[in-house]
Design goal:
about 220 residues, mainly alpha, 6 helices
Length: about 220
């Protein structure tokens, strides 16, 4: 039994000399499995991609631990079968002279260990979706800083608002003031900005949008 434990040494309790700690049945104690695993497809469907690498690593470790748990159950069953087969009842002679012998139980089959997957391999089926979400996130959270040091939100809605402000104030000269809630003040606080600053912010925001989307 002991040599069969080599396969799961990384998943069981070891003593100070790195030997398996066995119970009376000669079986080890499994270490606690990974905690905090998440449903990756569900996270992606909700657009929650911030910690995907961490959860992909946890999923890979969980797959390995689930195999170790199945292998442990195999060892338990193997131990029971071997004990049963080693203590089969003696053959029984019937009145007609025939002999009934107890049949040994077949030995269980050890579960095959899955290949240890990398983070990239776990996330491979979702690569395109993740790319699109990351690209959208770059746009949704974009902020540009103009030459005067003011910062402006540069998401798609903000780009539209900047454009609308310029259309509305098309007759205003570039030094004219357009109140704007910039990205470097509290929400709703209006900052006096010149039309030139709004033009520059809109230009930088659209340039960033084009860069993220690879628009020539």
């Amino acid at each position: 039994m002991t040599n069969k434990l080599d396969a799961i040494l990384d998943f069981i309790v070891l003593d100070d000399e790195q030997n398996p700690v066995l119970n009376e049945q000669g079986l080890p104690t499994l270490l606690q499995g990974p905690v905090g695993a998440k449903n990756i497809p569900e996270l992606i469907a909700k657009g929650k991609i911030g910690n995907l690498a961490l959860f992909a690593e946890l999923e890979s470790k969980t797959e390995q631990w689930q195999w170790a748990s199945a292998y442990y159950n195999y060892l338990v069953e193997l131990n029971e079968v071997e004990q049963y087969n080693a203590n089969l009842p003696a053959p029984v002679a019937k009145e007609d002279g025939s002999i009934t012998e107890a049949e040994p139980k077949p030995l269980p089959t050890a579960p095959e260990r899955p290949v240890l997957r990398t983070v990239d391999e776990v996330l491979e089926p979702y690569k395109v979706t993740i790319f699109k979400l990351e690209r959208q996130s770059q746009i949704d959270n974009a902020i540009v800083e103009i030459s005067t040091g003011k910062k402006f939100d540069a998401d798609e809605l903000s780009i539209t608002r900047l454009a609308n402000a310029l259309i509305k104030h098309w007759q205003l000269d570039e030094s004219g003031i357009i109140p704007w809630s910039t990205a470097d003040v509290a929400t709703g606080v209006m900052v006096p900005c010149t039309k030139a600053e709004i033009i520059e912010a809109h230009s930088l925001a659209t340039d960033h949008f084009a860069t993220v989307w690879n628009i020539e």
